[in-house]
Amino acid sequence: MVDRMLYVAMSGAKETMLAQANASSNLANASTTGFLADLNQFRSMPVFGNGMPTRVYAMDERPGVDLSRGSLQSTGRDLDVAVDGGGWLTVQAADGGEAYTRRGDLKVDANGLLTTGNGLPVIGNSGPIAIPPADKIEIGDDGSISIRPQGQDAQQLAVVDRIKLVNPPAASLVKGDDGLMRLASGEEADADAGQRLVSGALEASNVNVVKEMVDMIELSRRFELQVKMMHKAEQNAESAASILRPV
What we know:
The chain is of the alpha+beta class. Helix content is 26%, strand content 28%.
């Protein structure tokens, strides 16, 4: 019986540590542009076999992502954009596949590619968007990218590409370990011409810092309680051993 008590307390402490890692990740990304907080919950699992029915294992799980929108922050920067509504910017993930993000702090890298602030190429009509040398870059509310080529008249703007904006059903999306959203089916979402951008603005993270801090305190106390239960199981084992020890 002591072994079961110890294992239940140990498994609870382990799952609490996983929940703490989730809360820590959310807090660490509280200032990350366009970050969507991971949800977290505990679920009770029965102890199979002989034992008291009141004893259950605690299982920590991430049931999904908080898809509520962060606040819009005006920056006035030409390459900063925020998705107006429930859509997504399309980027090329590290594995080469297509993924979706709300992060709109765009920049042009040394190779002339339009990327997000964390270096992911932005996808356009036919793949990653390349920006020719230009004196000015403008992004329209429909995602179209116009440039004024170097040395050209200020009135001469040329459209070079259009950011692929998508809006698949929320239920069809899953969040990867890299923080990017993808279709659960593994397919690529179709471009949605109805999506719009807000230029010169960024969407802040939707992490509720106060809530995450309260959760961290609660999880810390829960972990301490489970450690105390493990110590109690050890004391019970020592007491049982002393009773059975021959005099």
